[in-house]
Amino acid sequence: MEQQKKLTINRGRCAAATIGDMLDYFDFLLIAFVLAFIVKDWHLTYGQSAAILLSSGVSAPLGSLIWGWVADKIGRRKVIIATILNFSIATGLMALTPDNGWIFLVVCRFLVGFGVTGLYTVDIAVVQEFVPASRRGWIPE
Q: Helix 76-93 vs helix 102-130: angle between axes, to the nearest 10 degrees?
């Protein structure tokens, strides 16, 4: 495997998954733009706005630690599927946020941060296993 210079199909899929991880982090930034539109209509305080913005960041380290530990126990493939479901369902639920439902939004954002960083933690290990040593620094992480 160390002698191979070309990316195989599986290695290409790993690289695509990592690029997908980068796009998931776009969600972390997107909430700031959404918040600019809802803060006035919902009459949010600075504290409520901060809770919405901070909730995914607070859960990020927890997601990395817990999902990484679970991946060691039950396997990376199962955890990758679970983390994708984790943040996908939470992201979809945000579309159902009721008016003035800032607490609902905080809970969903917490789950998104938990799942995204869990996926990223597990995905890095998978990608580094399949990328040739000569390309490890060039594949996005």
A: 150
